[in-house]
Amino acid sequence: MPEKPWDGRFSEKTHRIVETFTASIDVDKRLYAYDIEGSIAHLKTLEKAGIISEDETSTLIQGLVVIKREIDRGRFEFDESLEDIHMHIEARLLQEVGKVAQKLHTARSRNDQVALDVRMYLRDNVTLLVEHLDGLRDVLVGLAKANIDVVMPGYTHLQPAQPVLFAHHIMAYYEMFKRDGQRLAGCLDRINVMPLGSAALAGTTYPIDRHFTAELLDFPEVSANSMDSVADRDFIMEFLADASICMVHFSRLSEELILWSSAEFGFIEIPDAFATGSSIMPQKKNPDVPELVRGKTGAVFGDLMSMLTLMKSLPMAYNRDMQEDKPPLFRAVDTLTACVDVYTAMLPRLTIKRETMQAAASRGYLNATDMADYLVAQGMPFRKAHECVGKTVGYALKKGKELHELTLAELQTFSSLVKEDIFDFLSIEQVINRRRSFGGTASENVAAAIKTAEAELKG
Fold first, then answer.
1. What angle do CA 248, 250, 254 make, to 5 degrees?
2. pLDDT of residue 278
């Protein structure tokens, strides 16, 4: 059983069951590259302060490079008795370079060390997520542009409401994922703060230059309070909150894709490569990818709640509870990244059934509001026009006709203000293209929104 760094204080060895219970190496070993990078920067800072020599720095860095290569190649032996990745690397360094390895931990603690590792890990992964979300937004713009003339029903309360362009509907998700990218980019500002050198909680007596360390590790800011440095997990909670909101957007899109691909809607077809069948019903084609994304949303919500609950009652500064911050963080990063990537691959391959959408947009009195607007333009107050059109819809329902299928004489029984031009006014094309208010579904607006989005993505 390897010696523990704290063995000098204790009169008996750690119980085996405690070693198993407290070990985190199965989780935090994925931080090894960041732990080594942080240690190399720390060594250079110690050398700059005159705490270790240039030769010692060189020897220790060479040893760390060897260890990284071993882990990269899967040749490193992990042992839960060493608890975490920090102790594994330090123990292996002692084997590699001898007693000089014992100088590596000068002027730092595992408390500020793990805070650094997690910040570096999350910084890289959030940066990648922002890039991947840009790729997803590009796919959404391409899908909208390729189907700019497709008309579909727009819904409120899941009831047909007004016709919209399919491209307008898709661009709504562009805006959602744009906000997600902005939130994550803002989160990076809080992640990108360098905690190393705070030591256990009170700072260190050694004359280290923490700003020099930050410069080596490309951190624009250094943490200002040593206690907060080791106790802070706000940046993880913020990321998990942002990830949860992003997953809400994925879940809403998933729900619509599931509905639209059903026989009842028939608006789209999900490609075979992104669907599965039934083990008993030969005819089935199931939208498993959107369903799984919708299901995984709850897991990310759970990761956020796990982290909030973990931190809510902790006193200053570091507490061992905080070892449990990494499982929900890693799960959420992996889940969100997978969802972004699978949707980026799937969406361009959707089959859009424009005729079915057009037919659906032509049913259900989706031009009723426009008939009211027509009457308002003739001088009728809107509330009166609303009532008049409501009675007209009731009549059309009894006749089994749409508003534009009624005769002029039938329409005029409800208002003498109705003229022959009502039929052009109620056409789907006019209904859509009159909605020119900024952000509306008019073709010219949607085309402009796509052009703006393309410029944003080019950057």
1. 115
2. 86
Do 138 and 457 meet the contact criterion of CB atoms below 8 Å apart? yes
How far is 322 from 314, CA to CA, in rounded Å? 9
Residues 6 or more apart in contact with residue 218 via CB below 8 angstroms: none
Q: Closest Cα to residue 106, out of 46, 29, 170, 63?
A: 46
Measured CA to CA, the distance from residue 84 to residue 89 in angstroms comes to 9
Q: What is the pLDDT of residue 46?
A: 98
pLDDT at res. 4: 62
Q: What distance lies between CA 216 and its chain's CA centroid? A: 29
pLDDT at 9: 66
Chain segment 404-434, per-residue pLDDT in tens: 999 999 999 999 999 999 999 999 999 999 9
Q: What is the pLDDT of residue 1?
A: 47
Q: Using the structure block, give the residue that is written with the tokens 């008939």.
A: 371
Residues lower than pLDDT 70 in the chain: 1-11
pLDDT value, residue 22: 81
Structure tokens at 134: 């840009």
Q: Which residues contact 103 (CB under 8 A, 6 or more apart)?
A: 46, 51, 52, 56, 60
| Backbone φ, ψ for residue 173 (5° rounding) | -70, -30
pTM: 0.94
pLDDT at residue 348, rounded to an integer = 98
Active-site residue set:
157, 278
Q: Transcribe 209-265 into DSSP letters.
A: -HHHHHHHTT-SEE-S-HHHHHH--HHHHHHHHHHHHHHHHHHHHHHHHHHHTSTTT
Complete domains list, the chain, with CATH? 7-106 (1.10.275.10), 111-148+160-200+221-258+271-348 (1.20.200.10), 363-458 (1.10.40.30)
**CA–CA gap between residue 86 and residue 105 (Å, rounded):** 10
